[in-house]
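so im writing up the methods section and need the Alanine:cation symporter family protein record in one place, dumping it here so i stop losing it
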Amino acid sequence: MSAIVDFLNNIFWGYILIYGLLAVGLFFTIRLGFIQFRYFGEMFRCVLGSRESDKDGISPFQALTVSLASRVGTGNIAGVAVALTLGGPGAIFWMWMVALVGMATAYAESTLAQLYKTHGPDGMYRGGPAAYIARGLGQPWLASVFSVALILSFGLIFNAVQANSIAEAAATPIETMLVGSGMFEATPEGTAAAFTAAKAIIGAVVAVLAGIIIFGGIPQIARVAEFVVPFMAGLYLLAAIIALVMNIDRVPGILSGIVLNAFGLQETVGGVAGSVTAAMMNGIKRGLFSNEAGMGSAPNIAAVATPAPHHPSSQGFVQALGVFIDTILVCTATATMILLADVIPSAELTGVNLTQAALGDHFGNLGQIFVAVAIFFFAFTSIIGNYSYAENAVVYLGAGKGGIMMLRVAVMGMVVWGAIQAVGTVFSFADASMGLMATINLVAIVLLSGTVLVLTRDYIRQRKEGRNPVFVVADHPEIAPGVDKTIWTANNG
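--- predicted struct ---
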């Protein structure tokens, strides 16, 4: 089984997706007229246009924060550090490039998710890639395959991985307390047992906290994300700004060095070296994993939003901004704090340890504690964000309330399991599952790119006329099949 999974991952991530995601991003960037650059301000207008939601959906701002809850995870802390270690500072430049073209992909997939959404059995808006694959392409069987792959990867295994990150970061102090209390002997065997017990305790606590939120459904997840995500991301960016100000004289050299290193014109930046090939491959991979553009994940929550203005494209703009925030802001914050610190990445000092060492250099012990706290919040919010995607997939498969209940229990179980176990092998299975869903999604959005173009031109035309864009599906019979005509009417706008 491991051999099969490794073979699939080599195909998906070594060939199809690395080039496919970039190619699709460039395709939509060009076909939509560089929309992510020309209409960057529209993204903020669509996010802030309405903080309210109707009874059937969540607000655009809530949809953005839930998608960021999933996007901004431990990879933004540990993954960026690994990219720097393996690829050098130039990897950050290629992360930027992936994000900039990925914004167009994110716009396209979330616009389609809005267009093909329907009312679920609970009355709430439901949709996502499964909806536009089934109703837009007329391939319900392929939509079912996509949904199963999403549930396995985002709903279950990735949540175990996030729980493992929390447990590894927080288990040591609890282990010390358990040994000090006399519950475990102060021997290597006793310490190892205490460490395992500490991770089990952490897993149980995280599972209970996650359960309190996910049993409230997507509206509850949205309310939590709306508060926690801006707070945690804001604090993290504030720490980066302080580090930049403290080292302001070095900032121009670091930023220019990132660009020069990406093309082999400067060998080292901030004491970190890397080759052009390593920079490109590691930066592209890290960027794709982090911002999820084209993966088919964020469209699941984009479909639940009540867009403002009432047009599918407005939610596309919102999710394009999510890619920008995740990579251009949060990932760059991690990279600059590392490059400005007096630390050198190595095989021994990488991942979370490298980021902790960097913040420790900037802020002392407080910096190391801050990283541990950030890991908890980034990982925890990823768990609830990932769950929201999986719930949409369960609804599409027709599992009903019973299926949703089973998913919630399974997520809590995977959190406990992931906190205790090494998740390397299972993580490879999740990579294969995500590779399958991403491949299906990329093919779907390219085949439906004509529909995206029609929606985009309709939105921009109304903006240029000085109107608040409203999509009326009756005016576009060429894309009407499969669209819920009761949602996209002039009266709803």
